[in-house]
């Protein structure tokens, strides 16, 4: 890691986003998928706006920047969050986290298509090892009815994340003289508009005022969206898109454990072994990531601007 604090950010993101699948499942008892997406986006935007105000960060940018923000808001926020909500109506929360762990593979694939350069062999080995651990947790050979429409919807969300990581890394972070927190806030503001546009899909219905689901959406919005997105943008800025996306390999560990503790889902030797393999793949992928010197200088300058 280029910044030692990135390890803490990566772990915090794994906890926050790994638990988000359980929170979505709980929130579905009272809200529609599009209502959940809009609520978490608005709450996240409010948190980020408050952080910007506390740190004296002003949101600014020309039309070209806001167009790039709009693309990131669609593929990194609005679209995957609606898709995960829809998919989790039929897919277990732990399994959703495992599906989401394919995100680094899509990130590497889209990065290869954009740069037309092959990743270092060590990174490919780490990604492959991590994916092998995910397959072991997933164990498709043990369920004849695994490939349902809900699984494919969740997989579409992971693909969207992979595209977003590459786009944000190439078009937003370290390029516009704005700290990562400002970019995350701008993205969430635009995503709020997408959330409103998505409501007619299934969100034009009364919300059931049940305390536990409402608490779940509050935690999801404030911590799993607002604070998590601020950390994620900084992680992309410091370490690059591929390394940042490896948080998706850690998330299924959290989601499977929570599914076992809260929902009584199975946790056996195969799943524990898969988790260990996933962690090994993440470690190899992180150690193989070394940005070029000119990129490091740019990122250090941005970090200094944010801390000033």
Automatic annotation (TrEMBL):
Name the Pfam families for this protein: EamA
- What region holds the EamA domain? 13-138, 149-285
The listed locations are:
Membrane
Domain of life of the organism in this record? Bacteria
**Topology term for the membrane:** Multi-pass membrane protein
Q: Where are the transmembrane segments?
A: 7-24, 36-57, 69-86, 92-115, 122-141, 147-168, 180-201, 213-233, 240-261, 267-284
Q: Which UniProt keywords apply?
A: Membrane, Transmembrane, Transmembrane helix
Q: Which family is this sequence assigned to?
A: Belongs to the EamA transporter family.
Name used for this protein in its record: DMT family transporter
């Amino acid at each position: 890691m280029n910044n030692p604090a990135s390890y803490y950010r990566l772990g915090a993101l794994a906890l926050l986003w790994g638990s988000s699948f359980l929170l979505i499942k709980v929130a579905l008892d009272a809200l529609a998928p599009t209502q959940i997406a809009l609520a978490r986006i608005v709450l996240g935007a409010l948190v980020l706006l408050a952080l910007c105000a506390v740190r004296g960060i002003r949101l600014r940018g020309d039309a070209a920047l806001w167009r790039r923000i709009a693309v990131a808001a669609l593929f990194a926020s609005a679209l995957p969050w609606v898709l995960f909500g829809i998919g989790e109506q039929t897919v277990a929360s732990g399994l959703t986290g495992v599906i989401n762990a394919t995100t680094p593979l899509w990130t590497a694939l889209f990065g290869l298509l954009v740069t037309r350069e092959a990743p270092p062999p060590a990174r490919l080995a780490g990604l492959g090892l991590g994916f092998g651990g995910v397959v072991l947790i997933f164990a498709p050979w043990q369920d004849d009815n695994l490939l349902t429409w809900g699984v494919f919807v969740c997989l579409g969300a992971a693909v969207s994340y992979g595209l977003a990581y590459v786009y944000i890394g190439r078009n937003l972070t370290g390029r516009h003289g704005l700290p990562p927190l400002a970019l995350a806030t701008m993205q969430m503001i635009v995503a709020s508009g997408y959330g409103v546009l998505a409501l007619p899909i299934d969100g034009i219905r009364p919300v059931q005022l049940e305390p536990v689901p409402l608490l779940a959406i509050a935690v999801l919005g404030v911590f799993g969206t607002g604070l998590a997105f601020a950390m994620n943008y900084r992680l992309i800025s410091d370490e690059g898109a591929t390394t940042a996306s490896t948080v998706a390999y850690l998330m299924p560990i959290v989601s499977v454990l929570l599914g076992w503790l809260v929902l009584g889902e199975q946790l056996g030797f195969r799943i524990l072994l898969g988790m260990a393999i996933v962690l090994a793949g993440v470690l190899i992928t992180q150690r193989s990531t070394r940005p070029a010197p000119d990129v490091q200088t740019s990122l250090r300058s941005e970090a200094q601007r944010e801390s000033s």
